Amino acid sequence: MSVEEVFNPAESRAAVVCGAGAAVPLHVETNDDLARRMDTSDEWIRRRTGIGQRHIIKPGEATSDLAVEAGRLAMESAGLNEVGSVVVATTTPDRVCPSTAPEVASRLGLTGVAAFDVNAVCSGFLYGLATGAGLIAAGVSGSVLMIGADTFSTIVDPLDRSTAPIFGDGAGAFVLRRGRSSEPGALGPFDLGSDGHNSDLAAVPAGGSRQKAAEKPGDNFLSMAGKDMYRHAVDRMTSSALLALRRAGWTPADVDRVVPHQANIRIIKAVAKHLAVPMDHVIVNIDRLGNTAAASIPIAIADAMAKGTIQPGHRVLVTGFGGGLTWGSTTLVWPQISLRNSYGR
Ligand code: UT7
191-335, superfamily in CATH? Predict the structure, then answer.
């Protein structure tokens, strides 16, 4: 331990991003594929959402398969064989019980470490990062593998044109290690929030303790009040982003890159406009993946790293919104890390 760490323990208990990875299923579903089974069109989906295709799992595959792959790539990127904790942010666990993280940890050769799931729907990656940062700040773990993984194709009605075109499957992961708050990669202050009065805006009615079995067709599938969610998404991501910026001592003009949850290109453009951040500073990959829920932010980052649109030294704002309702934002200066990425394989 260095002298600095001895005399400044708070400063040396920051969570620092030191690895990243992402994985998506092989199978691609295009808008034309969807238009063959429901009343929609490539033109409508592109114009109203910005989505051109999505990757979805095949029968026999599950969320943990994607989580393991993204986790393995992030560990390789960090150059680590072990971590102290594994956190999986997901709303689509392999099973209702137990949580997915212990199995993911064991399949990565990390048996015995702390492992649990976080469910904050599409804000899951931000909630998971805050949880990982908390584990590090509390001295519970010196390093955390934080994975966002979701397979919403398993909870959308494949014939529902208001949800099936929007969601895709995938996983993305960061490795966090203990470090100094002043170094690149250190997660800045968070803003996290929720509004349970609007929990019905995006919900799967059946399968939980309130209503175990479907009472009517569709109860096992996600129903979403798209327009209301849209409005909340713009408002909440904008206000949360501004709060996180203020806590970091930054203004929107200081931001080199914004990584928003990939919900809808129109939502992303509206948030950028409210923040007065030009669109060429905003990371967008929704065209090829759709909305991958808790995975969308780390996959967008991995994609941007691969393309070189996020560079070491960039001041990055990350903001998300999802069912619950939940939202969250944080900031970091992008660190020098390598990428092992199977995305686009
Ligand atoms: O990840 C969590 C965050 N997610 C969100 O926040 C999702 C936010 N919501 C949205 O992204 C958008 O509301 C949707 C993409 C879900 C829907 O787009 P919209 O522009 O709000 O469309 P709408 O629901 O108002 O529907 C407009 C019209 C309707 O027809 P009428 O009533 O005007 O005749 C819909 O029936 O478009 C129709 N429509 C479609 N038409 C062709 C709805 N979905 C489709 C479709 N293809 N897939």
Answer: Thiolase/Chalcone synthase (3.40.47.10)
